[in-house]
C-alpha cells in the first residue's frame, strides 16, 4: 500500500476543484431555476409562491426516484476508468437510460395521486387550483429530465463536467423568459400565475436533454468511448443490477430531501404566509447546499477512480482532503447567510410577514450547515463503495425517525412546549442532519479499517 506521504494535498485539491467547479455551477443553475420560479411567482402573490412550494413538495419526491437511482452512475463509470474497462461504459449508458425512462414514467403516475394528498388537507381552493396547474404541466418534462440526467452522470463519471455546467447555465437563462411568458401571459400564452412555472420547467428540461445529446454526438472528448456506436435494447438483467445499486440510494436521497419537502405540505394548513416564508428559507438553503453536494460528487468520482485502481489509501486521502475543503467552505457560507439574511429575503417578496419568518429560519439554517456538509460528503463517499444498504438505513433513522419526529413534536404538538410551527420543524432538520453526520462518519471508519487490512488491497 502506498504511504499517505505519496499523495500531494495541493494536487488532490486541484483535481477536486476542477471536477467540482463545473458541477457546482450546474447544480446552482438548477437550483436557481427554483429561485427564479419563487421570485417571479412571489411577485404575483403570496398564494402563487405558496402554490409553487406545495407543488414542488409533491413533484420532487416523485422525481427523486430518477435522480437517486442515477446518482450511482458517476462512481461506477469512474471505477471502470480506474480499472481500465472503458468498454463497459456504453452498455451502462444505454441500460441506465432505459431504467431512467421507466422511473420517469413511474414518477408521472405517482403525481396523479396529488388530489388524494391535497384532499386530506384544508388547502385554500385558489391555492389548490394553482398546484394542480403546475403539476399537470411539469410531469411532461419528466422523460426529458431523465435523459438529461443519464448523459450528465455519464459525462461526470468520465471526469468531464463542463458540459453539464454550460447546458445548466443555458437552461437557467431560458427559464426566465419562459417563466415570464407563462406566468404573466405573453406572446399569446395565457397568464397562468405560479402554475406557469410548471410549463416553463417542462420545456427547459427537454431543451437541456437535447443539448446533452448534441454534445455527446459532436464533442471530441466522447469519441474514444464510442457511446453511440451500437444501439442497445433494454436488458432486464442489466437494468435490474443497476436498479439494485441505485434504488437504495434513491430511497436514501428520498428520505433526506423529502424531510424538507414534506414539511411544506404539513405547514400548508397554517396558511400561505407560513408556507411562503418556509419556502424562501428552504430555497436559499438549497442553493447553499449545492456547494457541499457538488464537492461530494467530485469526491465520489475521485474515490471511484482510486477504487478501480485498488488504491485504498489514495481513496481515503481523496475523502479526507475533500472534507477539509468542505469545512472551509461551510464557514464562509454560514457567515454569509447570517450577515445577509434580511437582504436575501427581500429579494423573494415584499410581504413583511414572509420576510420576518424567512430571516428567522435562515438563522437556524446557519446551525445545520456544518452537519449538512459532513453528511452529504459522507453519503457521496459511501456511494463510491456502492454501500447502498448502509446509506439507506442511516438516512432512514436520521431523517425520518429522528429529524421528522422531533420536527412534528416541536412544530405541531404541545408535548414538550407550545407548538412552534415552522421553527419546530427546522430544529428537527438540525437534529436529523447531525445524527446523519455522526452515523455516516462511523460507517466510513468501518470501511477504512476493512480496506486497509484487506490483503487484496495491499499494493
Automatic annotation (TrEMBL):
Location(s), subcellular: Cell inner membrane
Keyword list, A-Z: Antiport, Cell membrane, Ion transport, Membrane, Transmembrane, Transmembrane helix, Transport
Membrane found in the keyword field: yes
Superkingdom of source: Bacteria
Residue stretches spanning the membrane: 21-46, 58-77, 98-118, 130-151, 163-187, 193-216, 245-268, 280-301, 322-340, 352-370, 391-411, 423-442
Membrane topology reported for the UniProt record: Multi-pass membrane protein
NCBIfam families recorded: matE (TIGR00797)
Protein name per its UniProtKB record: Multidrug-efflux transporter
Species the sequence originates in: Neiella holothuriorum
InterPro entries in UniProt: MATE_fam, MATE_MdtK, MdtK-like
Membrane in keyword set: yes
Pfam family, one: MatE
Amino acid at each position: 500500500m502506498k504511504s499517505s506521504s505519496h499523495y500531494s494535498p495541493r494536487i488532490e485539491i486541484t483535481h477536486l476543484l476542477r471536477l467540482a467547479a463545473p458541477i457546482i455551477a450546474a447544480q446552482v443553475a438548477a437550483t436557481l431555476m427554483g429561485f427564479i420560479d419563487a421570485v417571479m411567482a412571489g411577485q404575483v402573490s403570496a398564494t402563487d409562491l405558496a402554490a409553487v412550494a406545495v407543488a414542488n413538495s409533491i413533484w420532487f419526491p416523485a422525481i427523486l426516484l430518477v435522480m437517486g437511482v442515477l446518482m450511482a452512475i458517476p462512481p461506477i463509470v469512474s471505477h471502470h476508468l480506474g480499472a481500465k474497462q472503458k468498454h463497459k461504459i456504453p452498455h451502462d449508458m444505454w441500460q441506465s437510460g432505459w431504467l431512467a425512462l421507466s422511473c420517469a414514467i413511474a414518477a408521472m403516475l405517482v403525481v396523479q395521486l396529488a388530489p388524494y394528498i391535497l384532499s386530506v388537507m384544508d388547502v385554500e381552493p385558489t391555492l389548490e387550483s394553482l398546484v394542480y396547474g403546475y403539476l399537470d404541466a411539469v410531469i411532461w418534462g419528466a422523460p426529458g429530465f431523465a435523459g438529461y440526467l443519464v448523459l450528465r452522470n455519464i459525462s461526470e463519471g468520465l471526469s468531464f463536467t463542463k458540459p453539464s455546467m454550460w447546458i445548466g447555465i443555458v437552461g437557467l437563462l431560458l427559464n426566465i423568459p419562459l417563466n415570464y411568458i407563462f406566468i404573466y401571459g405573453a406572446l399569446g400564452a395565457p397568464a397562468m400565475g405560479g402554475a406557469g412555472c410548471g410549463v416553463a420547467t417542462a420545456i427547459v428540461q427537454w431543451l437541456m436533454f437535447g443539448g446533452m445529446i448534441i454534445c455527446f454526438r459532436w464533442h471530441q472528448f466522447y469519441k474514444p468511448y464510442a457511446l453511440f456506436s451500437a444501439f442497445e435494447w433494454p436488458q432486464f438483467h442489466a437494468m435490474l443490477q443497476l436498479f439494485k445499486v441505485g434504488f437504495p440510494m434513491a430511497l436514501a436521497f428520498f428520505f433526506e430531501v423529502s424531510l424538507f419537502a414534506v414539511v411544506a405540505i404539513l405547514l400548508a394548513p397554517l396558511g400561505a404566509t407560513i408556507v411562503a416564508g418556509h419556502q424562501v428559507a428552504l430555497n436559499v438553503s438549497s442553493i447553499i447546499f449545492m456547494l457541499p453536494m457538488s464537492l461530494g460528487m467530485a469526491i465520489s468520482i475521485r474515490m471511484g477512480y482510486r477504487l478501480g485502481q485498488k488504491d485504498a489509501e489514495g481513496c481515503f486521502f481523496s475523502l479526507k482532503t475533500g472534507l477539509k475543503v468542505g469545512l472551509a467552505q461551510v464557514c464562509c457560507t454560514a457567515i454569509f447567510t447570517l450577515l445577509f439574511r434580511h437582504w436575501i429575503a427581500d429579494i423573494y417578496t415584499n410581504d413583511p410577514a414572509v420576510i420576518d419568518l424567512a430571516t428567522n429560519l435562515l438563522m437556524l439554517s446557519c446551525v445545520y450547515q456544518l452537519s449538512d456538509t459532513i453528511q452529504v460528503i459522507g453519503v457521496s463517499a459511501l456511494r463510491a463503495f456502492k454501500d447502498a444498504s448502509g446509506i439507506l438505513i442511516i438516512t432512514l433513522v436520521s431523517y425520518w425517525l429522528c429529524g421528522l419526529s422531533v420536527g412534528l413534536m416541536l412544530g405541531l404538538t404541545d408535548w414538550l412546549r407550545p407548538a412552534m410551527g415552522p421553527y419546530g420543524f427546522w430544529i428537527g432538520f438540525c437534529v436529523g442532519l447531525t445524527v446523519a453526520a455522526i452515523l455516516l462518519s462511523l460507517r466510513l471508519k468501518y470501511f477504512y479499517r476493512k480496506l486497509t487490512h484487506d490483503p487484496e488491497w495491499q499494493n
